[in-house]
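Hey L., structure's done. Input below.
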Amino acid sequence: MLLQTIAFYAFSAILLASAFMVISARNPVHSVFFLILAFFNAAGLFVLLGAEFLAMILVIVYVGAVAVLFLFVVMMLDVDFAELKSGAQQYILVGGGVGIVLLLELIGSAMMWKFSPAATVAAAHPTPTGISNTEAIGRILYTDYIYYFQIAGLVLLVAMIGAIVLTLRHRPGVRRQDIGKQNARVASEAMALVDVKPGQGA
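Output:
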């Protein structure tokens, strides 16, 4: 029990420190690296809670895909971050006010937080006997929350299509693949038979 407590405070401290460095680092590449570190420590907290499936999903999806994608985008785009930061000073008062309001709301929520007896029992027995953690999540996700799950997938699909439409550029002179023309092609258009005489080859 002592080892779990030490691990919890270690993961939590590194998670909070890395999350603070994400928003305070001057280099955006360093911010992405600190974000990856925060994801790893959050996965460690999930493991301590007995949610191994969520920990693996956090590492595989967010670290392996989202954070790496952020890193490639930041490194490939030629963005003048000095110019972007130069105009952010006029929003310091508004941003600081919003941050203080959010901080007060979090403090108020933490002070009024109470655990119900049902939540205590659920925390003591997170999954039924004989059912793995992954199976329990799957049963809840695909029964009680199936409509929300489908709506979330639809929203992600619309977002993906919107991103493709917004970034699609039709430039003249660029050779593009025409699937319909390729499928309608006959054998005579695909190849040409040439009678090469002896000594006339390449």
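The chain has a mean pLDDT of 80. The chain has ten helices and no strands.

-- N.
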